[in-house]
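During the second year of the project, the team shifted from modelling isolated chains to modelling whole assemblies. The rationale, set out in the original proposal, was that interfaces cannot be judged from single-chain predictions alone. As a representative example for this report, we include one of the complexes processed in the last quarter. Its constituent sequences, exactly as entered into the pipeline, are reproduced here:
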Amino acid sequence: MNKKRLFQILARADREEVIQLGNKIKQECHSVTVVKQPEKTLTMIKMREPVKNSLFYLGEIIVTEATVTMDGSTGVAVTMGDDFDKTLSMAMIDAACNAGVFHYEELLIAWESEQHLQIEKENAMMQKTKVDFHSMDSEVST
Amino acid sequence: MAYVAVSGGEEAIAASIQLLDYYRSGSEKELDIDALVHQLGLMIDKVMSESGLYAKEYAALALKQCEGSTEEAVFLLRAYRSTLKRSHYTNIADTKAMRIIRRISAAFKDIPGGQLLGASYDYTHRLIRFDEERSSGGRLHETFKKILADQQPEAIQSYGRVSDMLKKEGLLDTYPQDDTMPYDVTEKLLEFPAPRSARLQTMTRADTGFLSGLAYSVLRGFGQVHPTVGELRCGYLELTIPYPDAEGESIYLGEILITEVETFAQSSDEDGLKLASGYGAVFGRNENKAIAMAVIDREIERGGDYAAQDEEFVLMHGDCLEMNGFISHLKLPHYVTFQSKLDAVRKTRRNTK
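Output from the structure prediction step:
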């Protein structure tokens, strides 16, 4: 699983479940050291605009970041918001992945399926607002 | 003339600050932040956009603290933002891949992917629903939980831009990819002529009312003719940053809701063989601000003598914090400067007698 997918699943997941998973990994007697305690920081959003195909800054978001090491492997997490506990658990999960000791990929995939389902159900509500145009007068429709 | 410090009034000031809370104490009911985020979403979007900081809960908290004053909430958020360091810049966010929740065009009836009305007040009767809105809390939440659960999932699709159609036909100019590092108006003072990136960043942070008023002036004749909204889209934009020390890997940070608009207008070229476009993008669901931004973007590009075409005028007078700060300072003591003005008038009167 690539990092983007991993962090997308974790960012969208319920905080309690992520924290629980983080604790489980910690209990599996891996030596975990917090290198950088969770802290809030800013991230500037860089965007491309379509008129001149150039870049500009849309504004900032608040993210929380943390770094840990586990069995000599480093794990990082950066995620939107200010949830310190969740971010720390995300860093532990990342470290476990990097150390090759993460055994819960199937669980993450199950979370992901549920997340997609919810997004697609919401999308179904949006799609009901799609307009089906019918021209009422052939002369003005051209 | 030097400024003169005066003392006195400390106790009065402390009592004045306490009185602010008195004005929030009239009800036993407390405003819940979660309820504010979900039920005053458009107001929160506006505050986030004007403060240049996408943080819903913090915007709600700021609004609660200052009795719903947009400019005070913007002040609080900007002040808080200044206490944090900035550690990251996102990868270039791709709005073509946005998860669209609304997308319309006033230029073409048929657009690839179709027109999606999404949620819009445009088709509502503006009537207060007295009974419904007075009903108990949580009613809407429960209703929509059920509606959502009953939906048949539909796969997400991405929507191309309407302007790409015109670019393919050669009716709009195309430009090579420009990866110049954007100018950052939060770190550097504006200089004129401003780079395009500084213009767009300044406008997306600008006061909604200021941009709307200026765009209105354009439409009423103090600018170019009536532009057409080529595309208005609202959706979730995915944000990522590079994963440290790993080529090609990235960290997904989350997604933000934005509104993006492209307007089409007459080109300034002599032969009139092409159209020109303007661009607006803002935090949240804030359509009029995004449209206004796109209208003014085009006006500044075109240039001219009207207010909306004057880059310095537009970019220097639209910041919510700056404009309100400057106007607000007028009510602070100007005892010495006013005495000097009075002296001057008295002296002139004496001389004329």
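The mean pLDDT of chain B is 93. DSSP finds 14 helices and six strands in chain B.
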